[in-house]
Specification:
single chain; 282 residues; alpha/beta; two-stranded antiparallel ribbon; 47% helix
Length: 282
């Protein structure tokens, strides 16, 4: 599945262009937004439910089945820009000239994405990861206005109905936002490779404390995917450095972003083997 999968179920159609990627008719007026509607996931994405149920039947008990959704701000970048972007000038122009319009889009998305996340849990997902990939292009002030509240809407809905289901958040290039991410109440903050793991753990704990949340919070990441193009010795050294800095509890070892398609398979396998064989000193 993909983060854009639920959009047609909200009244937003899109195409995939081989060279451009996702292409959407730009949404830039109130009339455009009024065409959106609340998703019925069972009608819009029955294949997602089928895939999750099949996975739960097929995988071993020690293997978790993960669900994931895109967050409202990141989805809104596609709706407003009409396609992927490098600068996100159209959505920023809307944020600074017609903020009420953007908030209407974000609220509609948050309501539907909340339903979509619950639907995944009800069909077998044991954890939900929320991706606000392009929120890293926002200043801290604008993140507080246009991204965090809508992330929190989704997280609150999940915790209201399924309080024991863990939640994870990821934003690419999020070094300036870690405390704010932690303050949304998410269980685990994913770090990309631009943040030192030890410093990231401390900042997550501080962000949770400032928001009145108990516990230090969990962390995921954060090996640079480019390291997997190095030799085995480099992969082992860098992976173990992160594991040591993260400590023995509350850490999901992972890459700091998606794996690159050209990554040698034997290097990826060695990374996994390294993590499985690592033991913290008593």
């Amino acid at each position: 599945s993909d983060i854009l999968t639920p959009l047609p179920g909200m009244g937003v159609e899109f195409d995939i262009d081989e060279k451009v990627g996702p292409v959407v008719k730009p949404m830039r007026t109130y009339e455009d937004v009024e065409k959106m509607h609340l998703i019925d996931p069972s009608t819009a994405a029955p294949f997602v439910a089928e895939a999750l149920r099949t996975l739960r039947e097929e995988v071993s008990p020690e293997t978790a089945v993960l669900g994931f959704v895109g967050c409202p701000y990141t989805l809104a970048t596609y709706l407003v820009e009409g396609k992927t972007s490098k600068e996100y000038l159209e959505i920023k122009k809307m944020a600074f000239t017609e903020p009420k319009l953007l908030h209407m889009i974000l609220k509609n998305l948050a309501e539907s994405i909340s339903e979509y996340a619950l639907f995944q849990i009800e069909n077998g997902a044991q954890l939900i990861q929320i991706f606000d990939s392009w929120a890293g292009h926002l200043s801290p002030r604008d993140y507080d206005e246009f991204a965090a509240p809508y992330q929190k809407m989704i997280l609150d809905k999940i915790k209201e109905k399924y309080p024991t289901v863990p939640t994870v958040t990821y934003i690419k290039h999020s070094g300036a936002l870690i405390e704010r991410m932690a303050g949304t109440g998410v269980d685990v903050v994913s770090l990309d490779w631009t943040v030192d793991m030890a410093e990231g753990r401390e900042r997550i704990a501080n962000g949770r404390a400032k928001a009145g949340l108990s516990g230090p919070g969990g962390v995921q990441g954060n090996l640079d995917p480019g390291i997997l193009f190095g030799d085995f010795a480099t992969i082992k050294e860098r992976a173990e450095e992160i594991l040591k800095k993260a400590g023995p509890t509350g850490h999901v070892m992972n890459l700091g972003h998606g794996i690159e398609a050209a990554t040698p398979e034997e290097n990826a396998a060695y990374f996994i083997e390294t993590v499985r064989n690592f033991r913290h000193e008593a």
